[in-house]
Design brief:
Elements: H1 3-6, H2 11-23, H3 26-33, H4 40-54, H5 58-61, H6 65-81, H7 86-109, H8 113-130, H9 133-149, H10 153-163, H11 170-186, H12 190-205, H13 222-235, H14 239-252, H15 258-274, H16 278-295, H17 298-305, H18 308-312, H19 320-329
Length: about 325
Amino acid sequence: MDRRSFVGFGVASLAVLAVQWASAEPQRLARAFGGARVDGAVVDWLEAGGNGLAVLPTEQRRHAARLMDAQLATVTGLLADGRYDERTGRRLHRLAASLASTCGWYRFDQGRHAAAGRMWEVALLSAHAAGDRDRVAGVLADTAYQATWLGRPRASADRLGYALTGVRHPSARALLLLRRARADAALGERAACYRDLAAAERALDGADAGPPPPGWCCWMGPADLAVDSGRCLLDLGHPAAARARIAEGVALLPPARDKTRAVFLAYQAHALLRTGEVEQALAATADALDLSARIGAPRCVALVRDLAPALARHRRVDGVPEFLDRLTAV
């Protein structure tokens, strides 16, 4: 099935998919676990299922979390106990890296940071075993994003510096530079931040000239550059400029990226509060909370909650006390 039909599935359809996944080729898979050589057809089947699960929108991915864990367990089980040639082994390791990365992001969105880190460690080891330097860099970038999120920007900047030595595609390079700029801004390293932002923009400008980007960064685009640039400006003490850049990025974001939109709206609310536009900030915060609750991303809900102290300074503004009461109840 193609991606467009797959991502339209609901919970009931995913339950049907689970049955199909379990029964599609039981004999062939059982033979592989029983000592037979793992052939290309088994890997094709595993890749089709794994890649389909990886591209589910966040709102649906939470309902498929057990399927993703089971798929990863199947692949790692074959790697541990199966018989395969070098080429097949690389394919299995590459698939394990992709699945573990997706499972790590699910746990990160749930606020289970230690569990996310363990999944990304599996992804890192698998990508290294596959000889996929781009994927290694992508996993390091994910752990760096988590480090910045958890208030450890120095660790983030160090990891991204290493990861940048292993990427070739301009989109991947732009993403890593942008994430390092965020770490630079959190550290107060103004010159390094501006340098990385400029380099990220140049890299992204050249991304369309060559081959398509790796799957782990294919979503990277102008919206991400604009919003994260704005977030850097906010951290460096330029709220008006930050507000304009974040608004630009929110307007550019594709509708399908709801989790990212929830994060971006929280950033926008932060900038609006810093420039004294309380009513607009309240609207953005409410939208961010609605999205975060709908897609089941506690990490994003926590980001919205962080805005409560700043909102509380404006209790006399219509709607603020009611929203704060709602936020407390979430």
